[in-house]
Amino acid sequence: MNHPIVSEILTLFKTNGGSMYGGEAVTQLEHALQAATLAKEKQASDALITAALLHDIGHLLHDLPDDASDKGIDDVHEVLAANYLAAHFVPAVVEPVNLHVAAKRYLCAVDPAYYDTLSAPSKTSLNFQGGVMNELEVAHFEQNPFYKDAVTLRQWDDIAKNPAMKTEAIDFFASAIQNSLK
User: Fold this and answer.
1) DSSP 27
2) Which CATH number goes with the domain that contains 94?
3) More confident residue, 119 or 152
4) Are residues 169 and 34 in contact, defined by beta-carbon separation less than 8 angstroms?
5) Which of 2, 5, 29, 140 is the most buried (most CB within 10 A)?
6) Can you give the pLDDT at residue 21?
7) Rounded to whole angstroms, how far apart are CA atoms 70 and 89?
């Protein structure tokens, strides 16, 4: 039997996941499922699969419009998500979720070619999410024991925007979510 938070998360995606994913050609649910599928294909741990699935759940927890980032509004979805998840999930889920926006900033700093791979909406949001990290921010980011997982999650996040990609339904990932609880 699923823990109540697992059922709550599945319901949240089924209820609110149909909103568009910030200027991309996929919904929030499609984006989450694609990221989790990419993690599963790489044989990631249940915790990292869960982080991939839930990394943008913060977008489902606020009442801002789908195009908030187009209007220069930072919804701090990574903080909303991490705060929501922290009471129930192991740090191996919470920290990569919390760091996935910082990971974009980090990758832009350590790999200048990375910026050119970002979608237009992701480039737009980078500006109000703090821009490219400076050397001190890079060093600080690399001190977090979950920074490599956050970078890996970020790379899946960047790819998970394909309207033609086939995935399992959200319920397929319930066991990974359940296995990632504290």
Assistant:
1) B
2) 1.10.3210.10
3) 152
4) no
5) 29
6) 75
7) 31
Token pair for residue 163? 């309207």
| Per-residue pLDDT tens digits for 42-62 | 999 999 999 999 999 988 886
pLDDT in tens, 2-44: 799 999 999 999 999 998 877 788 999 999 999 999 999 999 9
Beta bridge partners of 27: 20
Please list the helix, strand and coil fractions of the chain in percent, rounded to the nearest 5, in that order.
65, 0, 35
Range of the domain at 132: 4-179
Q: Domains in the chain: how many in total? A: 1
DSSP string spanning 31-55? HHHHHHHHHHHTT--HHHHHHHHHT
Provide the 3-class DSSP secondary structure of residue 181: strand
The CA distance from 87 to 179, in Å, is 15
Look at the chain and count its residues: 182
Share of the chain above pLDDT 70, in %: 91
> By C-alpha distance, which of 181, 24, 158 is closest to 90?
181
For residue 115, give every residue at least 6 positions away whose Cβ sits within 8 Å of its Cβ, in sequence order, or none: 108, 123, 126, 132
Is residue 53 within 8 A of residue 35, CB to CB? The reply is yes
| Mean pLDDT, the chain, whole residue set | 91
Spatial distance between the Cα atoms of 88 and 126, rounded to a whole number of angstroms: 29
